[in-house]
Amino acid sequence: MNRRRLVQTAVAAGVLAGTAPLASAERVRTPRDFTGPFYPRGPRNQTSDLIVGEPRTDVLHFGGRVMTPDGAPYAGALVDIWHADPNGRYKHPRDRGQGELLEEFLYWGEAVTDANGAFAFRTYVPGRYAARPAQHIHYKVWFARKEILTSQVYFDELGGAKGFARSSEAAALQTANLVRKNDNLTAMLDVVI
User: Residue 181: its pLDDT value, please?
Assistant: First the structure.
């Protein structure tokens, strides 16, 4: 884990716990990335817990903060995520594996940032699929019903962006570390808008 990523992870974890202040140093904006072909159709699941019932595999607690470049929190922003299940399937009519979807997994959800700009989701680690072997979570950030960012997050321990991000700098800003505790995994990401 590089030093910058270690600091980001520690700060994000502290903010989610309500213990770390937001620093005032200028931050690089999170790069935009592709929405992809499987953006959910219909109304979003208005929950940040994408697992209903008993999980079949490791649970991922994915969270972080949405902030401005000067570190001010983006309170009241809606973070909208969607991703493949652990088997690499999306809940979308264009994904051919609709008969293989997991019943306990919702595939997309949303969370609203708190006063510190923090958000949190309970989900699965996204699976690989042939067209895009880099495991990733897609997300959009909305404020006052306006989309202000579309991007993706990759995971160092799962191979990172592997050339799928738009640039090497973008890959570093879009990559989070997975931390394992028992049967749970945690990943934190700062989103700078």
Answer: 84
